[in-house]
Amino acid sequence: MMEYVEGTPIDRHCDQARLPTAERLKLFLDVCSAVDFAHRNLVVHRDIKPSNILVTGDGIPKLLDFGIAKLLSPDPLLTSAERTVTAMRMMTPDFASPEQVRGEVATTATDIYSLGVLLYVLLTGHRPYRVTSGAPEVIARVVCEEEPEKPSAVITRVEIEKRGDETIEITPDSVSRTRDGDLHRLRRALRGDLDNILLTAMQKEPERRYGSVRALSDDIGRYLDGEPVHAHAATWRYLLEKKLRKHRLAVGGIALARCRLRLGSCARALVPR
Question: Is 47 considered catalytic here?
Answer without folding.
Answer: yes
